[in-house]
Amino acid sequence: MPEHRNNIPINLYKELSSSAVNILFINHRDLQHPLAGGAEEYLFQIAKRLARRGHDVTVLAERPPGAPPQGEIDGVTVVRSGGFATLHMYAPLYVKKHGRKYDVVVDNIAHVFPFLSSLFAKKTAAIIYHINGPVLLKTAPLPAALVGTIAERTTPRLYRTIITISPSTKDMLLRLGARQVHIVPTAVDHQTYKPGSKSPIPLVAWINRFVPYKNPQDAVKIFTEVKKEVPEARFVMVGGGPLLEKTKKLAAKVAPFIEFTGRVSTETKVRLLQEAWACLYTSDIEGFGLGILEAAACETPCVAYNVPGVRDAVIHGKTGLLVPHRDTKAAAAALAEILRNDQLRKSLAQAARQYANQFNWDKSAEKLENILSILISK
User: Fold this and answer.
1) What residues of the chain score a pLDDT lower than 70?
2) Which pLDDT score is estimated for 1?
3) What is the DSSP code (8-state) at residue 276?
4) 70 half-sphere exposure, CB direction, 13 A CA radius
């Protein structure tokens, strides 16, 4: 029996890992885009590691106002063109014109519609972060939501190789007809996210984008209930987005004690996670819930809705607490219990950090490299 590594024969692994290849990723945004989020963090953490391993890595993304048409981020070439919608027209044309110079093209599908690189490139794969499903009805007009639902149900059949970031999403993709789905998990920068000094008084953080499927207004309701049980507690909501002002207005009426920071630097975010006693996640769905892992690495357990992606990031009763979807009273009770129960909080915090330690960007980059190498070699 030949020796294997990551389910690949060791002789083939060595041959492929030592061969530099040219990789094109297509993604809506690059890491410097004003609206960059978890998908961009995932892509560039892996892309820069592939570049360090000797591969030529390019990211094609939309060009926001004021951004140069081309640049470089951590050794990754960034080509910018088009906007949120027009990138879907530009990307296939770019691949048709330049596709031969790339050994593989990877469509990063974080916003339902594929980039259709498979029409013009021989070696293609897709990274699909999560299945939006009913969430589309909350985030898009009805006609767009219906078209998006059809696209989402069709896309998994367009690619022979699909990568996703959680078991929950893999199961959903297989049910939609995907043939081959690999899990390359999200991870944590453990040099940045690590335990620090906790706040002397109870502190709860909600760190996310203020968009419909993240349900920021649920957080206001939950914090209002927790404040009744733990009156000395502080509550901070971090992030930006279209629902920020609406959420602020709601809080001004029913929970004026909530602090809003807007978007913050990584350093400020880390310090807040280190000081927090718990964090709250109110999303309808996630690819995985990178913010939950980042909090866990800082020994901060989360209370979250039991939904796809999130349930992969929180082990209920061990690293955090899961409650039924949109059950704000159950979420408030769970948060209050963590804040009042020192033994429970410390147990969850320690287990959360141990769980987060399993997720490493170097391992994820190596796994994606192996998958793409096998695809290229076929």
Assistant:
1) 1-18
2) 39
3) -
4) 2
CA angle 162, 10, 366 (to 5 degrees): 45
DSSP secondary structure code for residue 66 in this structure: T
Give the CA distances from residue 309 to residues 130, 168, 289, 291, in Å, rounded to whole numbers and listed in that order: 8, 6, 6, 12
Distance CA 375, CA 378 (A): 6
Per residue in 296-322, pLDDT (tens digit) is 999 999 999 999 999 999 999 999 999
Task: Provide the pLDDT for residue 355.
Answer: 98
Domains of the chain: 4-187+360-377 (3.40.50.2000), 203-356 (3.40.50.2000)
pLDDT tens digits, one per residue of 106-116 = 999 988 888 98
Residue in this structure with the two tokens 């030592």, named with its chain if needed: 18
The pLDDT of residue 18 is 52
Q: Tokens for 162?
A: 């699909």
Cα(93)–Cα(116) distance, rounded to whole angstroms? 10
272 HSE (CA, 13 A, CB side): 23
Quick check: 359 and 188 in contact, CB under 8 A? Answer: yes
Alpha carbon 362 to chain centroid distance?
Answer: 17
Q: What is the DSSP letter of 320?
A: E
b/e sequence 306-344, b meaning 16+ C-beta within 10 Å: ebbbbbbbbeeeebbbbbebeebebbbbbbbbbbeeeee
- Taking CA atoms, 312 is separated from 132, 283, 288, in Å, by 16, 13, 6
DSSP per-residue string spanning 194-242: ---PPPSS-EEEEES--SGGG-HHHHHHHHHHHHHH-TT-EEEEE--ST
Q: What is the β-pairing status of strands 76-80 and 70-73?
A: antiparallel
Partners of 24 in the β-ladder: 58, 105
> The pTM is what?
0.86
